[in-house]
Design goal:
Layout: H1 10-29, E1 36-38, E2 42-43, H2 50-76, H3 84-105, H4 115-143, H5 149-178, H6 187-190
Antiparallel strand pairs: 1-2
Length: 192
């Protein structure tokens, strides 16, 4: 694969990977922009299944791609608002929590083979969704007080948990077990 070519400088490989991941994000996100719950602000977002995938398998380029993909999606669907700044931050930090947990905090390498590792992944999914709701919801409410705060927060939480749990986890298992895609290396295990 061209991105594994060691002759290319690392920044070039990272930029190319980020660009490819942005395209993957948009291919999944754009068709669902029509499924609006609060028009112009929130919709049903199956693309959230990529949040843990981008963080665990692609690290920082995946986090950047997730945030930029969301911003481009906002621009393309004419839903770019001042609150998109908070959306950009939350959509970077969402996958970043997975990256940090599995690379820096977890004492074992990423795997979803055991009940314990599935519980860990579920906990990170819930923490990530809560963090996104805490960042995005007040920003939207501050700038647009007419938006239903509770409904908006619930939609952010549901999108951030349902799709990563029920679609993201199976995709990650498929990637790791059947396609043999290697997750980012666990820093704790690399040092041993």
């Amino acid at each position: 694969m061209a991105l594994k070519n060691r002759n290319l400088p690392k920044p070039v490989r990272q930029c190319a990977l980020t660009g490819i991941l942005i395209l993957v994000y948009l291919i999944i996100a754009i068709p669902f922009k029509v499924m609006s719950v609060i028009p112009g602000f929130t919709d049903i977002r199956p693309v959230m299944l990529l949040k843990p995938v981008f963080g665990v398998f692609f690290g920082i380029p995946g986090c950047i791609a997730f945030a930029i993909g969301n911003l481009i999606g906002d621009i393309m669907s004419d839903s770019l608002r001042w609150s998109s700044i908070a959306g950009f931050a939350a959509n970077f930090l969402g996958p970043f929590l997975f990256y940090v947990f599995w690379r820096r905090i977890s004492k074992e390498p990423f795997s979803l083979r055991t009940g314990k590792s599935l519980l860990k992944q579920t906990a990170v999914i819930l923490a990530s969704a809560a963090m996104e709701a805490v960042i995005i919801t007040p920003a939207v409410n501050l700038i647009y007080p007419d938006i239903d705060f509770g409904l908006f927060a619930v939609m952010v939480l549901l999108n951030g948990t349902v799709f990563p749990l029920f679609l993201g986890i199976p995709l990650m298992i498929l990637m790791q077990e059947e396609l043999h895609v290697k997750p980012i290396e666990n820093k704790n295990n690399a040092d041993q």
